[in-house]
Each structure stands twice: as structure tokens, then as C-alpha cells.
Amino acid sequence: MKVLNLDKFAGVEKRQLVIAGKTFEVPPMNVDNFIKTTKAAEGLREVEDLSVQIEATIEMILRSVPGMAYDDLGGLELAQLQAIVAFIKGDDVQAPEEVEQESDGQPGK
Question: What is the pTM of this model?
């Protein structure tokens, strides 16, 4: 008999997000959250109001990161919100200081 144990498959990689010294666990995106996020993104295609787009982005982040509150995000820059979204999607995101350290502080490397 062959058995596929999905309990061992899911959530192998642990990811954390640190904002203002607070650490949040970032679980892998599940199917339900993926569907909600995709529908929200599709609904925003025609929306030109940047504040509406940012609010939808914040809602997606809050849905994806347990224990995070709106107040944890309100003081962030837009580039930081974009980095969080990419990280939640599973992309490898580096802060600018990490990129500089890797290139030994030399511009253009």
C-alpha cells in the first residue's frame, strides 16, 4: 500500500517576518487564502485609487500572517508592504542592507 501523508508535506519551511522588533510566523499560503487573495487582486485591476489598493494589500497581509494587527503595518513604507507581500507569496526577499552587505558595500556588485 502506498500512502501520501500530507501532514508531513505541508509547512516544511518555516518563515518569519520581523517588524519593529516583533517576530511573526508566516505560514505557507493555503488554498483558501490563495483564492481570496486572487479574487481581491482581480477586483483591484480596474481600481485606480491607490488608497483602496493599499487597504486591500493590508487586508491580504493580515489574513496571511496570524497575530499581526493593522497597527503593525500602518507606519511602514509602501516598499516594505510590497516586500511583505512578496515574502508571503514565498519569494526570497532581501532588505537593502542585506544586499549591500553581500556586495561588501561596493555599489554595482
Answer: 0.74
